[in-house]
Amino acid sequence: MTAGLSAHHQRLAQRKREAITAAATRLFLERGYDGTSLAKIAQEATVSKSTLFKQFPTKAALFEAIVTEYWKGGPDPATPTTHPGDLRAGLSAIGRQYADLIGRPTMAALFRIVISELPRFPELGRAQFDLGKLPYFVSVQRYLEAEHAAGTAVVPDAESATNQFLGMIANYVLWPRMLLADWNPAPADIDHAVDEAVTTMLARYGRGAGDPRHS
Predict the structure, then answer these.
(1) DSSP conformation class of 132
(2) Distance CA 14, CA 3 (A)
(3) Residue 151 Rama label (left phi>0; alpha psi -120 to 50; beta)
(4) Partner of 155 for a Cys bridge, out of 82, 148, 202, 215, CB 3.0 to 4.6 A?
(5) Is residue 166 predicted with pLDDT exceeding 90?
């Protein structure tokens, strides 16, 4: 019975947490980070102020939680690294995972909050980078390093290669959405963009038969 109650309470706490982060995101977009109080967020999320403060004692802590949850909301980009050996398959999997992650409206909303508030609250940009973008970036960089170590790719500068690969995808999936409210490419178009990015990476970093770099 105790275990059942515990599981129930955990599910209830998770639902309240999701309601809080969703309400905070909406209000940050509508009123700005500075113009949104924790009390208003609690009211919008239909939770008590004590419940909100128990999970998020400060507005900064709440924003950091939003960043972390949004970036961890997609599939783990490190999954394909377990058995390096097929660069095309690995990049294709990562590329589609990344496109799905940054293509969600919630991710675009997060970027809009950071961009609009950055002049007054530079710490929001730092949180977005350190808690979201950087860990994801590092996981992809490690994947490319693993392929290089396995001899299935030639990636002497994995950091630069990661920038190129993720940048090609974000330039089609995410950044137009920052300026164009109706930007919503079809799944087939996104798949094509990912495939083109993979093909470009293979041409630059793939290890072909008779490659003079490995003679």
Answers:
(1) I
(2) 16
(3) left
(4) 148
(5) yes
